[in-house]
Fold this protein.
Amino acid sequence: MLDPKLIRQDINSVALQLKKRGIILDTAHLDALEERRKELQTTLQTCQNDRNVRSKAVGQAKAKGEDIEPLMREVKALGDRLEALEKEFAEVQAELNNRLSFLPNIPHESVPEGASEKDNQVVRVVGEPTKFNFTPKDHVDLGALHGMDFTTAAKLSGARFVVLYGKLAKLQRALAQFMLDIHTEQHGYTEISVPLLVNGDSLFGTGQLPKMKEDLFSVNGEQGFYLIPTSEVSVTNTVRDEIIETDKLPLKYVCYSPCFRSEAGSYGKDTRGMIRQHQFEKVELVQVVHPDHSYEALEELTRHAETILQKLELPYRVMALCTGDLGFAAAKTYDLEVWLPGQNAYREISSCSNTESFQARRMKARYRDAKTGKPELVHTLNGSALAVGRTLVAVLENYQDEQGRIRIPAVLKPYLNADYL
């Protein structure tokens, strides 16, 4: 959530920054709400003081044996007015908070301006697109040869699900294990296992609620649980309502989990294969850091995600997302896009984001400043390292041969004890 003080002090600057994201801020209405809030706050204080004075006068009059009925009527009238003012103040404050909860994060100054993914900028390209002396198959055709079954999945659940059999299922498991091993043994992350069902407070904390409710799978109604769209939600919320001692920072977690998304806004997109599914697996990195180090941490986290692609020898590129393509909570994001020969295109396989204090403010996640001893907001970062299903797709398509066999990448051979799928 944006800092309410920033809204009060420089709303026009906030409006200008959000405009870069395609958001038109109703500054007049927010100004009017803020003015009414301040007016009510002042009136409340005056009314409370008046009632305290009258209440004290009642006690003094009673001690003197004087008639207190007129004073009692004044106290009651002030009490009734105070109750009405408090109700209106709460309503105004709630409307302000609600409007703020729908506003996305302000882009970092280094984020390129643009309206859509077409305006994203290439930061670096690593490796050459894989070339073949035959026409490469896509992962759906390759998968049909090795145990990828969309028909059975549709019978079980519907569209955008898959069943994997045998060595293909083992390859997916090996990819996840390989990623976890690299991040825990080489990159210093602590592995964490978290609930797949979370409450609304957790989803509000990381920014999925209320803005992106339609993309979530709700379980057991409004007051119940939601299936996580990413383990970022569960992992980041472990620090909700916490004050962390400075010497404990940074916190670095890696989590492997299924993820669940309704894909409400993707009708007609990627309907073929495993690229966009309702259920998929992901290895997620989360860092909770001191604000002074969050952009250094973003570069580090992105490099950690890149390491997986490099070790798998998969061609990829790093993209800096433009203002119009940033996720709701992100101040800056790098997307990693892997080369898929079957599509003759780069496709997203990871997003690495710095949310600065946006999530922390919603979660009340703080650290204790070593100099002042006061609690201050942490910065939170997250990134896929990697989306396991899409990595499986990339391995299938980049390591295929003309017969449709899949050569096992060198780093995965110890997990599979095989040269080919």
Summary: The mean pLDDT is 94. The longest strand covers residues 279-289. The domain at 117-416 is CATH 3.30.930.10 (BirA Bifunctional Protein; domain 2). DSSP finds 13 helices and 16 strands in the chain.
